[in-house]
Amino acid sequence: MKRDTHPSGAPWRNFYGRFKGKTLRPSQEAYLDEDLAKLSPGAVDWDVNPDREAIDLKPLFGEKDVWLEIGFGGGEHMVHQAVQTPDVGIIGCEPFINGVAMLLGKIRAAEAENIAVYPGDVRNMFDVLPEASISRAFLLYPDPWPKKRHHRRRFVTQEYLTPLCKVLKKGAILRVATDIPDYVRQTLEEVPRHGFEWLAERPADWREPWDDWISTRYEQKALREGRVPHYLTFRKR
Ligand SMILES: C[S@@+](CC[C@H](N)C(=O)[O-])C[C@H]1O[C@@H](n2cnc3c(N)ncnc32)[C@H](O)[C@@H]1O
């Protein structure tokens, strides 16, 4: 029998990534035990918020602009942005718990205080973010899903782009980095269709990284393997 909801009422959303990898080091277990609850953005999971009420971002970040990083991996980019721009608050979503543990170590080391962490699927976060509450979103090296029959699992599809557009403010910026040419194609096709304009005016705008960029783990791997990064910047219309 195919189920379309969990007992909590949550929709049955296919997730094809990994939740857990190698055994965590004791220090990483400690970060998760001691820090994760303190960094929670609020009631995001279905079991604690079955009516999907919008969360209040004020207690988290006051009047600061709020940014969102989707699939932060090991968290190096998010911590870098948080340290560089202390006048914004950044929410990161990542279901891979080893990545979350890595991020928590980096937050401790950097003593960053403007980060909130949701250790789960960004679609749950979209449900409860207030409309037009986010002024910048980062989608950095999303899972490539190279096989044609898997392209519909990509982030640059309606399932993700429609709710993303809803939670972004008018004029908000969306940054997408990818090393997969066919992902560039799909991004340039789908993202404008979902309410964004591509801001590139010349090749350097997508060939060169953003001024405030720090290379992520996945980008390092792509470069080692000879793939070419693309940096796409969109603005919500
Ligand atoms: C290829 S990795 C890139 C990680 C990181 N951004 C980097 O550049 O190193 C893609 C990440 O997206 C995460 N991811 C996949 N689906 C997701 C979802 N629905 N919500 C949030 N993160 C997701 C994966 O767990 C994985 O860590």
UniProtKB/TrEMBL annotation:
InterPro entries: SAM-dependent_MTases_sf, tRNA_(Gua-N-7)_MeTrfase_Trmb, tRNA_methyltr_TrmB_bact
Signal peptide positions on this chain: none
Residues binding substrate, per UniProt: 147, 179, 216-219
GO function term, MF aspect, one: tRNA (guanine(46)-N7)-methyltransferase activity
Zinc listed as a keyword: no
Sections of the chain in a coiled coil: none
Source organism, top-level taxon: Bacteria
Entry's EC annotation: 2.1.1.33
Annotated keywords: Methyltransferase, S-adenosyl-L-methionine, Transferase, tRNA processing
Recorded metabolic or biological pathway in which this protein acts: tRNA modification; N(7)-methylguanine-tRNA biosynthesis
Reactions this protein catalyses: guanosine(46) in tRNA + S-adenosyl-L-methionine = N(7)-methylguanosine(46) in tRNA + S-adenosyl-L-homocysteine
Residues the record lists as binding S-adenosyl-L-methionine: 69, 94, 121, 143
Gene Ontology, cellular component aspect: tRNA methyltransferase complex
One family name in Pfam for this protein: Methyltransf_4
Task performed by this protein: Catalyzes the formation of N(7)-methylguanine at position 46 (m7G46) in tRNA.
Family statement: Belongs to the class I-like SAM-binding methyltransferase superfamily. TrmB family.
Protein name (database record): tRNA (guanine-N(7)-)-methyltransferase
Lineage, broadest ranks: Bacteria, Pseudomonadati, Pseudomonadota, Alphaproteobacteria, Rhodobacterales
Encoding gene, per UniProt annotation: trmB
